[in-house]
């Protein structure tokens, strides 16, 4: 058995996007996972523990409550997650067709065509699904096509301007001044900003007031903004590049100056920075809805 116990709680938290506090709460309140303790009282988790927590996370993102899941077997949780995935796959197939149509409009600089697709998808989907199931995959596909040379930088800028308008309208129509503020930014030398803007729109839908700072924001500006706005959390997007030592220094500054403020980071490069930092006070977010759940728990 001991040879199967591979993972400390920090690794499990980073891998699942579930905070260490939440993992300990579930253990104590629901007895849902019982990690083995080492002689120094460290929790150690097995592959089975990790797989169960990943299933629970996915079930919660599909609307199930932890109290319900605590009474289910792993097989039962797996079945409801699989059923949810089948439904999502069917919906995503339709969305993929719309994403391909949007890419064609971007290629041809067809502003009327792209606007029509964006408006139609916003009507068809809930605002949350519009962002998670359409906008974020569209942004990823535009990035992939640009990297492959199929789209030029002018195509990317054309698409960005129209998507920015769509997301901005969601923020304007969803945000209230009394909502808890959350600072959102791409940190220093991270120049991809639209994923962060999409997250800003998403949290505005779910009862928070995004304070969106844009791309390549130095640590000093993030710290100042959090202090002046009395924000309850910081959300950072790190997509490209990884391996930037300046960003490592900035993350250390943010953590040192704002030790009581939760810091969340997501994006394709985020895992590298967290591993390099070895800082369990910064939470890796894999899924947008996991971020919403964390913000609501911490508010």
Can you describe what's shown?
The chain has 299 residues and is of the alpha/beta class. It is 62% helix and 10% strand. The chain contains 13 helices and eight strands. The strands form two sheets. Strands 5-4-6-7-8 form a five-stranded parallel β-sheet, with helices on both faces. Helix 11 links the parallel strand 6 (233-237) and strand 7 (263-266). Helix 7 packs antiparallel against helix 8 and helix 8 runs parallel beside helix 9. The protein is globular and about 65 Å long.
Radius of gyration: 20 Å
- Ranges where pLDDT stays below 50 over 5 or more residues in a row are none
Helix content: 55-70%
Query: Strand portion, in percent?
Result: 5-15%
User: How many helices?
Assistant: 13
Largest sheet report: 5 strands, parallel
Q: Total strand count, please?
A: 8
* Bulk shape: globular
The chain-level structural class is alpha/beta
Could you tell me how far the N terminus lies from the C terminus, measured between alpha carbons in angstroms?
A: 39 Å
| Mean pLDDT metric | 89
N-to-C series of helices and strands? EHHEEHHHHHHEHEHEHEHEH
Strand order of the largest sheet: 5-4-6-7-8
């Amino acid at each position: 058995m001991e040879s199967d116990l591979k993972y400390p709680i920090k690794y499990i938290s980073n891998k699942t996007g579930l905070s260490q506090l939440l993992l300990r709460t579930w253990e104590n309140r629901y007895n849902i996972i019982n990690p083995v303790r080492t002689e120094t009282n460290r929790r150690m988790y097995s592959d089975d523990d990790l797989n169960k927590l990943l299933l629970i996370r996915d079930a919660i993102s599909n609307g199930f409550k932890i109290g319900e899941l605590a009474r289910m077997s792993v097989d039962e949780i797996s079945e409801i997650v699989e059923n949810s995935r089948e439904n999502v796959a069917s919906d995503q197939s339709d969305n993929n067709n719309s994403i391909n149509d949007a890419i064609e409009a971007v290629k041809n600089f067809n502003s009327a065509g792209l606007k029509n697709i964006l408006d139609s998808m916003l009507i068809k989907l809930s605002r949350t699904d519009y962002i998670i199931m359409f906008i974020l995959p569209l942004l990823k596909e535009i990035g992939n096509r640009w990297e492959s040379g199929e789209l030029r930088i002018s195509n990317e800028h054309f698409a960005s301007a129209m998507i920015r308008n769509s997301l901005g309208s969601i923020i304007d129509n969803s945000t209230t001044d009394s909502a808890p503020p959350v600072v959102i930014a791409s940190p220093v030398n991270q120049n991809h900003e639209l994923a962060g803007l999409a997250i800003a729109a998403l949290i505005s839908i779910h009862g928070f007031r995004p304070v969106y700072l844009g791309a390549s924001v130095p640590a000093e500006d993030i710290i100042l903004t959090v202090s002046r706005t009395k924000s309850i959390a910081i959300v950072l997007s790190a997509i490209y590049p990884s391996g930037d030592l300046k960003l490592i220094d900035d993350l250390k500054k943010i953590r040192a100056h704002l030790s009581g403020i939760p810091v969340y980071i997501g994006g394709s490069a985020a895992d590298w920075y967290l591993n390099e930092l070895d800082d369990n006070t910064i939470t890796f977010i894999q899924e947008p809805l996991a971020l919403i759940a964390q913000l609501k728990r911490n508010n």
